[in-house]
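ok new one. same drill as before - structure tokens go in, u give me an amino acid for every spot. 256 of them this time. try not to just spam alanines like last time pls lmao
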């Protein structure tokens, strides 16, 4: 089958691709608008496309697995996946569209944020990760670029499950081809071939909080400093036992 080149104007499931809103080593994400007066999902969605140069069998399996993992999830702080589709030799994930990611927003619209709403974003992100862990899913790539937000700040969603693993199947052996996670957020034990569990995501989340405050230039409250210190301890056993510990501190203790 001839593979059709995907570009703005391409139509899938009654949606026309508009501008590209994100791109990585394995996929490209487009904003898409319905051309049907009765849209299958919502009037605007996001369409993730596996790069044509990534069509090896194992890459396709990984991409499809990513979509399937998220399709079965329902949480206000997890991006919603509508469907996984193969069309014209390409593979697509159709999902909820959210305005931007947290890192882009911080760098381009810093005026959106203050000491109060950034705590709210951190809490909502933590709740999304907690939900994943309670469903046996380890994200493995928590960082500010994988937290989506709306410009109104009423939506905060964890996204990009390309490296996510079901806990009972997760074991990562260190080798020269290690590519898991984003530099600066990868927990040290990953490099030692140790079992991957929730505490790896907790480490990455601690580094995420640290990065958020550094980029915004906000004074870091002592409670936030303590959360980061515990979450990013080099020894997994010294970190929070679960994301709920972080949520509890942020929701029940005054941040000052």
């Amino acid at each position: 089958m001839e593979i059709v080149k995907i570009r703005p104007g391409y139509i899938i499931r009654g949606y026309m691709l508009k501008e590209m809103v994100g791109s990585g080593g394995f996929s490209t994400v487009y904003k898409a608008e319905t051309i049907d007066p009765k849209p299958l999902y919502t009037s605007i969605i996001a369409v993730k496309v596996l790069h044509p140069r990534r069509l090896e069998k194992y890459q396709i399996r990984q991409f499809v697995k990513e979509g399937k993992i998220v399709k079965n999830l329902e949480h206000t702080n997890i991006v919603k996946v509508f469907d996984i589709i193969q069309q014209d030799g390409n593979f697509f994930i159709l999902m909820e569209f959210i305005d931007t990611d947290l890192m882009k927003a911080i760098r381009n619209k810093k005026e959106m944020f203050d000491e109060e709403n950034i705590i709210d974003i951190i809490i909502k992100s933590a709740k999304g990760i907690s939900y994943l862990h309670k469903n046996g899913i380890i994200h493995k790539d928590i960082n500010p670029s994988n937290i989506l937000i709306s410009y109104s700040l009423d939506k905060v969603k964890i996204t990009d499950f390309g490296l996510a693993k079901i806990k009972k199947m997760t074991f990562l052996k260190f080798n020269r081809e290690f590519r898991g996670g984003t530099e600066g957020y990868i927990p040290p034990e990953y490099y030692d071939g140790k079992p991957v569990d929730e505490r790896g995501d907790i480490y990455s989340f601690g580094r995420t909080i640290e990065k958020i405050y550094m980029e915004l230039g906000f004074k870091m409250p002592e409670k936030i400093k303590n959360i980061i210190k515990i979450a990013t301890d080099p020894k997994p056993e010294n970190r929070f036992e679960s994301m709920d510990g972080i949520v509890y501190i942020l929701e029940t203790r005054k941040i000052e």
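The two ends are 61 Å apart (CA to CA). and btw The helical segments are 57-71, 102-108, 115-134, 198-216, 222-231, 243-252.
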